[in-house]
Specification:
This protein is mainly β. It has one helix and eight strands; from the N terminus they run E-E-E-E-H-E-E-E-E.
Length: 152
């Protein structure tokens, strides 16, 4: 974060683990993309405002994209994770959320994603996390064909 000493920024470290239930093996082709959408909101205001974060990983890649997308950067390219009740949007495409690791195992139908997020993001309209407060989290995920959204 520009102008902020990273040693004085508090981060939350998270991990998402997904287990598929279909019999069909997940595709890891060059044309596939794994997407995970995470929406955050406080219980008293989640109907009016949710912060959205999306992680992407190309099917053939061994890593998730390092920088997670904020809603403003993905609103027009896919319908996944683009509900109308998240308003206002983050005022720029930077959310300071970073993918730190994780894997996809198409044989076992498992996927994991590790990430970090600052408690306070220096961006208008973002959610400031407070220790010991309850946050609601909604997850969506899918395997899509690169380009216009099509479920594989």
């Amino acid at each position: 974060m520009d102008g902020v000493d990273p040693y004085y920024v508090s981060y939350i470290k998270g991990k998402i683990e997904i287990q598929g239930t279909q019999v069909r093996r997940w595709t890891t082709s060059e044309t596939a993309q794994f997407r995970v959408c995470m929406e955050l909101g406080y219980p008293d205001s989640y109907n009016q405002f949710r912060e959205k974060i999306r992680f992407n990983r190309n099917g053939y890649s061994s890593k998730w994209d390092w920088t997670a997308q904020s809603e403003k950067s993905f609103l027009n390219d896919y319908t996944m994770c683009s509900y109308s009740y998240s308003n206002p949007l983050l005022s720029n495409g930077t959310n300071f959320v970073r993918s730190e690791g994780g894997d996809v195992n198409s044989d076992d139908l498992t996927m994991s994603l590790e990430f970090t997020r600052p408690f306070d993001i220096p961006v208008d309209d973002s959610i400031t996390l407070i220790a010991n407060d309850t946050i609601k989290v909604w997850l969506q995920w899918g395997i899509f064909k690169l380009g216009p959204e099509q479920n594989l």
